[in-house]
Amino acid sequence: DTGVSQDPRHKITKRGQNVTFRCDPISEHNRLYWYRQTLGQGPEFLTYFQNEAQLEKSRLLSDRFSAERPKGSFSTLEIQRTEQGDSAMYLCASSLFPARGVVMNTEAFFGQGTRLTVV
Amino acid sequence: GDSVTQMEGPVTLSEEAFLTINCTYTATGYPSLFWYVQYPGEGLQLLLKATKADDKGSNKGFEATYRKETTSFHLEKGSVQVSDSAVYFCAYLWVKLTFGTGTRLTIIP
Q: Cβ of B94 and A105 within 8 Å?
């Protein structure tokens, strides 16, 4: 396993089009996170999954955004009717959240990101 | 709510100077703490981590100690190099990974 992979690495789309990004986490990791990073800013949390369940969504995630992790492995992030303000780097990360009885969370590993440009 | 407060930048230092970038957090539970680094044009890389109180994370000459009593995780390096120029993010992981706003560091020869 070579780590978290994201596809595509770059996407240029016209305003109003739909786009979908894919993230393949590290295989044994049960948590998967999506973040957005704009130029000069830190990563902003969008949503995360524990296995296939989406447990939290940021208010940044408008109704044009939807994320899925259907089998608890890879995840997709779809943006409908893209706007220029959606232009950003979309980052995926995964981690192993320990089983019951162990409170310590492990580190999150990031993919290289998908850079979206809406023109 | 949970948050990370990070020293604002940009920070400019001369080569071989001592570096400190402050980071404090407010969180519930037992978070793990991290410093990530982002070099120009590259993705986020984990620099170092600490998973419990009093742990010291270290890598590439950088160090940070998990101080539960002061809820801090300050990043230090004794002698910085031009190649350390990057943006540094403090973060903690409990339910989710929460980042500070980042500190841009520039080292001049």
A: yes
